[in-house]
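During the reporting period, our protein records have gained a structure token line. A sample record is set out beneath this paragraph:
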Amino acid sequence: MDDPKTAWSLEKLPIGIQAFETMRGQDYLYVDKTRWVHRMVTQGMFYFLARPRRFGKSLLVSTLKCLFEGRKELFAGLWIAEHGAWDWQAHPVILLDFNGIPASTPEELRQSLFFALKRTARSYGVALESAAVETQFQELIWGCHQKTGAPVVVLIDEYDKPLIDHLGKGAIGLATATANRDILKSFFGVLKETTVSPLLGFAFLTGVSRFSRVSIFSELNNLQDLSMNDAYADMLGYTQEELETRFAPHIAVFARDLDWTPDAVQGKLAQQYNGYRFAERDVRVYNPFSILNACSEHKFGNYWFTSGMPTFLVNLLKQERYDLIRIEGLEVSQSIFTTFEIDRLRVEALLFQTGYLTISDVHDEIYRLDYPNQEVKAAFAESLLFTVSEGIQDGASSQVLQLARHLQREDLDAFFEAMTAIFAAIPYTLAAQRDEAYFHTIFYLALAASGADAISELLTSRGRIDLAVHFADKVYVLEFKCNQSAAAALVQIQAKGYAERYRGSGKRVILIGIHFDPATRNVAEWQAQRVV
């Protein structure tokens, strides 16, 4: 853009704003998703959608609330007002946002539900007389319908928060999550009852996780799950087209501040924040929280990751002794997406549902999962590195950050000096774990945490490359050996023809053989060879 708008004339970015009426009433930037909303409300009645945190679920719930309240003025100029047939009839709306419903104990969950139902009942002039929250829910729906004569709309945001808040907290946490699950199972079952369901016009539930139907939704088995539905794959998150059109003025100012071109900024934004795929249809979306923050601060930070560290997830990986280099490139069947159970957590399902992995490819009903983008890969790898290297000295962090830069400059002496310092910083008490797989894992995590495009155990026609590190102009091929020479590692690279994979790529190929010594618990020697 030749003449980018000045920063003070740009649309305001809705960071932390999840209320549709606030965004539309106060001129915040809104990416129009009402085409998908219209499809939902005109083609069905009972829906469920799972997405990672901070991905726009609450804004979608707020949009539905305003739509069913008949607030036509808020939708002026949007797709649903211009092209969608909608009668704008006002409906009574019952919104239960579990972000604001405390549930530290089952008793607190019941009491919090009681107050939430009472609050909505007062707004519609409905009296609740029962002592049980399930019956109160029935009374509220009946009363709202009688007061207005219109079908009742029920919107439930972050339904699973009373469950996932307690996972990873030992036996007591598991008992609380299980008790809360039983309460919610009975509570949500009200929507299916024969005296209630005819009074409903629409029901929509959101959350992070997709607990199986035999678990929390066994009493509510008429929900249409949109979580992996091709038609709704891009309903949340920003598509490439939406980024290029709605954010163009912001990207122009971003580029000017960095003295970059807008195309260069877009390329970096794509590397950092694009890549989420939620269905078999190959459509990718950007993380909206990170895009909003990057365009506000004009920096490429780890905004989404640092907004909620996955302590529980990292601890689970450690507890399960999960092979961390397997996280990237996992191949799974579709069944793992629908078998999420409190007492039988599957790491692969959890990684996908929480947004740390996404679908990269689908072939013959086999789903390949990878990190969605560089933000998630680098930040998650750093978190894993400092977890598996428990007690690692703080000074190692600065060494980790330099690794990618050293390789980019082809300064291998500096690279191995930093890597040696990282291994030396790991407490001696972990020495028993020091086999080739352990060294390999630490090496991979450190490189990924530095921001390098590191890919572990890359399959070729003649074997698996231990580690490949990609740059725009070069690629490193690394082979690890314990109690064998670095020269032996190079011989294996050459014998297996690992460099052949990159012939014709236009990139320089640098082979590195590495000898780890379990006795010294560090890199003993390395050798490099450049392929002509």
Summary: Residues 106-124 form the longest helix (19 residues). The two ends are 42 Å apart (CA to CA). The mean pLDDT is 90. DSSP finds 20 helices and 13 strands in the chain.
